[in-house]
Write a structure and sequence with these properties.
By secondary structure, this protein is of the alpha/beta class. It is built from four helices and 17 strands. The chain has a six-stranded mixed β-sheet with strand order 3-6-11-14-16-17, with no helix packed on it. It has a four-stranded parallel β-sheet with strand order 2-5-10-13, with helices on one face. The protein is globular.
């Protein structure tokens, strides 16, 4: 099992590292087949059950409270729309700051598999940020303060403060000199 301490999470965020852990395997060994070795399957099942309940709840404080129970850091006045999915395997790596909005059907993944690699990274939505509906964020990204992600975007890199980005993959659409705080 991969244990992640609060100190490791804080170090990851403080030093702006993209990934907390990256485990390489020999090509053809399929690291996704070892899913049960990364986190206790019972804990994964409990987290997934809570994520499924939250998926069907409208944006509300109950939903935010349930996400906090599985380890997501959520600030004040956060809105998480219906059908959004927050990673149930490593939810403790998701940080959503005050006044952030997560759009309908958005997915935030803190882990990813390739043919020979397993990666774990945090996702941070800074204060007053928004990720539009049906967007996907991969591990290791930060969406800056006062920034917006257009609908149906793939967030594969950090988003600067005060910007509007979108697309697959994302690119800058507009950069604001200053937005309301």
């Amino acid at each position: 099992m991969i244990k992640i301490s609060k100190e490791e999470i804080e170090d990851l965020r403080k030093n702006n590292r993209k990934f907390l852990k990256e485990i390489k395997f020999k090509l053809g060994s399929n690291p996704a087949r070892r899913w049960y070795k990364y986190k206790n399957p019972i804990k994964q099942a409990k987290n997934y059950f809570i994520v499924l309940i939250c998926k069907h709840l409208p944006p509300c404080e109950l939903k935010n409270h349930l996400y906090r129970l599985i380890g997501v850091t959520i600030g004040k006045n956060v809105s998480i729309a219906n059908d959004a999915i927050l990673d149930p395997i490593f939810p403790e790596l998701i940080k959503i700051e005050d006044n952030a909005i997560i759009g309908w059907g958005t997915k935030l993944f803190t882990h990813e598999f390739t043919l020979d690699t397993f990666r774990i990274g945090s996702i941070i939505l800074r204060k007053n940020s928004m990720i539009g509906e049906f967007s996907v964020a991969r591990p290791g990204v930060t969406i800056g303060k006062n920034s917006m992600i257009a609908a149906m975007s793939f967030v594969n890199e950090d988003v600067e403060d005060n910007s509007l980005e979108g697309g697959v993959p994302i690119h800058i659409i507009k950069h604001y000199k200053r937005m309301n705080q």
